[in-house]
Design a protein that fits this description.
6-stranded mixed beta sheet; 14% helix
Amino acid sequence: MNHNKKLVALFVSLATLLVCTNQVFGYSEKPAKVAILPVKIHAPEKMEYLQAGLMDMLASRISGKHNVQILDRKQVAKTFKKFKKDLNETTARSLAEDLGADYIVSGSVTFFGTGGSIDFKVFSRDVAKPPLTTYSLIQDMNNLLPQFSQVVDEMNAKAFVAKSRQAMVTPPPQAQQPQAAQAAPLPTPKIAAPEKQAQQQAEPTPVPTETTPTQPRVASIKQQRLQERPVSSKIGQQAPAATLPALQASPWKSQKLNQTLFSMDIGDLFGDGSKELVGMSRKKILVYRYEAEGLQELAKYRGAKDDRFVWVSVADINRNGRDEIFVSGQKKLSDIRMKASSFVLEWDGEKFARLAENLDYYLRAVRVPGEPVKLLAQKSGRDGTPLPEIYNLVWKNNTLVPGGTLSFPESADIYNSSIGDITGRGESETVMINPKRYLVLIDPLGQPLWRSTESYATTENSIKVEIPSKDIPQPSDDLRGDAYRFAPIRDTDEGVRYIYLPSPVLLTDLDRDNRLEVVVARNLPGFGQLTGSRQYSKGEILSLTWGGTGMLENWKTGEIKGEINSLQVGDLNGDGHEELIVCTTESGGIAGLWGGKKTVIMSYALTPR
């Protein structure tokens, strides 16, 4: 028996079933309480492992698409054990009364020969409502979807009360991004320079008036009911239609910045409630303020000659009301040897001064909705490679010290992963970019739950590490993509290799449904990738949600010009609403031949539907 085909049949039929349950639960004024009984699996071989996934899928679809409350699964199973008889209308209503449920959903999946059947019933606690039955006999797996659709259509026509769905499928008008109120003027920031350089004072940069040409379009977010395909590792399905945010069709765009920014973050640096954008090039930290016409440069910090910056984060770890700037960097010890050398900046009322320096850690501040911000850190080995142990750093006696170690899956590190309750099971899963550049979801025991079939979050940002000459990979290794830790290795100097860092994988709750979404960038392959180049000319950003057996797409931007290096979610323009902030770089004409690139910051207004 081909079990893969049976699973396809199962998932497609379940997805279509949930379209019909939409009619049952969709119109109550107050949340309907729904109890889902364990799905029975009838098969020649043991396939009980499917049960949990199927129940997750049912609960996810029903709770995500309808005004309902799913009752606790353990309590439902415990109460159901008291009923010795087979489930019928009488026992179902008794069970509903014991549980305080409005509806009971029961079902089974049967495999036989080359076909199978799926049976589901929805019992109402209201005696005036007869049970609603969905049944599909599948003779040929290739004809599964049309056969099942016919059964559902017939059941809709006979059993359900037809009501207009127009209000649910008509998208609201696009909201315009309001212009932020003018922020109060600040004194000209002064910058504390490194010890080896003369102290410099940053001068505000005039805002260019250069206008931006064609805006990238945003792919529409379909709210209509769909016939869902089986969930697979290839993202292409629609996520549960909760109160999804709508992206502004034409994002705000900054002027072209004469910097190649590899990393950026936003935060309240001055303690005045407004947010500033912090960008990082290889040797500069730049602070910008949003203006309707573009970004105004407020301050610039220049690193020393032997500095190489790799990541910038912003967070108020010392809890004084002003966000610190955490700069992850490397210091050159010889032509091929580097070591981690990070530092912390904070506004002291006159300038951005160093709070800590020469830290032997790589740093990243991580935010997860519902949790306090964490400053994650990894020490570097003798060759500059990040060591496996991951620490949560805290301020103590005016210095950063480990507040404890954190458990991460193998190959995960502070830059390629994020941890949170992504499946909604009350446990912490890890979403990460694996060494092959695939997006993967890993359970608390380190077992994979899902993996994409396409690469994500690739960038040119990197950590530079020493490698013995005898171990330098050949060009063919680059094409196979079998690099250490992050992505394929691309060597430019003998004895040196680059550990490429992905763009941030963000965990957010944009629709405020207490379920985490994953927001991740994808630079789209082009001609350059055929020659082994890591330079990209276009990309897109996606929002994904766990759908019971895989990640489903909530929305994605349209094609974005340039290479996406970084992204964040926050209120940059000060209008009280979050935006999706994107950092892109593109070659600047002839300068691009020597690696010179310009940066454009984009801001998509996120308007809740």
